[in-house]
Automatic annotation (TrEMBL):
InterPro entries: AAA+_ATPase (IPR003593), ABC_transp_ATP-bind (IPR050319), ABC_transporter-like_ATP-bd (IPR003439), ABC_transporter-like_CS (IPR017871), Oligopep_ABC_C (IPR013563), P-loop_NTPase (IPR027417). It comes from Streptomyces mimosae. This is ATP-binding cassette domain-containing protein. It comes from the Bacteria. Keywords: ATP-binding, Nucleotide-binding, Transport. GO terms for biological process: peptide transport; transmembrane transport.
Length: 290
């Protein structure tokens, strides 16, 4: 595998769902939610998969992480087809490709403490917790900007942004190389979004992580993505590096998405972003965790 080869690749991904209408004589309907998707994610880069609701983004994310099996096509990790892995081999793959979900409160067990949540992937993998559960959790909490003294708290005792940081800590626990962020900031306030995006960027720089970043908000995509793939009715209709795609979109659907982004006076937007960046830089991690 060469240095610039993708860590994670998908080729010809198809996922169909079958549904039955009402009544005993109703025919089964086949919905093709993902229709021939190709994508690559490299170490240290962010591929954003964008599209409107129902375009197949989250289904593609789950296929890439092997949370769903494809109807057709393959998923490869470091050049190896992982589509039909089972048992220990599948466990290993999932330790390398972790997911951060959209709603942190839905993905965190409300009855468990942060310590139990963060160490759960290691227990699932039947791996020892380095240094013990308490010390391990405290170190990860500090790393994602949370107060380590709160490792005994439950999810309901945290804000939405803090809960999402717990989800990120849980994803990091097994040392992944790819993180799938499925609308990971869409449920957060704008100021909190900025802090979480800054956290994701820092972790990417430190660990060389590759991100598959699922989003519908193109303003967020512009902040974090290196490359962008536009999904429409389950198909990638356009892809390319972020700046080129935003500057000169080729497909009509991409132009429609960009036209829907609210626009304000550029000087106001520049000043707003500068103030937000100053606030984020001036806010110590422990202050947000209070």
């Amino acid at each position: 595998m060469t240095e610039d080869a993708p860590l994670l690749s998908a080729r010809g991904l198809v996922r169909e769902f079958t549904s039955r209408g009402g009544g005993p004589l109703a025919r089964r309907r086949v919905l093709r939610a993902v229709d021939g998707v190709d994508l690559d994610v490299r170490a240290g880069e962010t591929l954003a998969l964008v599209g409107e609701s129902g375009s197949g983004k989250s289904t593609t994310a789950r296929l890439a992480a092997r949370l769903l099996d494809p109807t057709e096509g393959t998923v490869s990790y470091q050049g190896e087809d992982v589509t039909r892995l089972t048992g220990a081999a599948l466990h290993h793959f999932r330790s390398q490709v972790q997911v951060v979900f959209q709603d942190p409160f839905s993905s965190l067990n409300p009855r468990h403490t942060v310590e139990r949540i963060v160490t759960a992937p290691l227990r699932y993998q039947r791996r020892p917790v380095p240094g013990g559960a308490r010390a391990f959790t405290r170190a990860l909490m500090e790393r994602v900007g949370l107060n380590p003294d709160h490792s005994g708290r439950h999810p309901a005792q945290f804000s939405g942004g803090q809960a999402q940081r717990i989800g990120i800590a849980r994803a990091l626990a097994v040392g992944p190389r790819i993180v799938v962020c499925d609308e990971a900031v869409s449920a957060l306030d704008v100021s909190v979004q900025a802090r979480v995006i800054n956290l994701l960027r820092r972790l990417q720089r430190e660990e060389g992580l590759g991100y598959l970043f699922i989003a519908h908000d193109l303003a967020v995509v512009r902040q974090i993505a290196d490359r962008v793939a536009v999904l429409h009715h389950g198909r990638v209709v356009e892809s390319g590096d972020r700046d080129s795609l935003f500057a000169a979109p080729r497909h009509a659907y991409t132009r429609t998405l960009l036209a829907a982004v609210p626009r304000i006076r550029p000087e106001w937007e520049a000043a707003r972003r500068a103030r937000a960046a100053e606030r984020a830089a001036a806010t110590p991690p422990e202050e947000e965790s209070r």
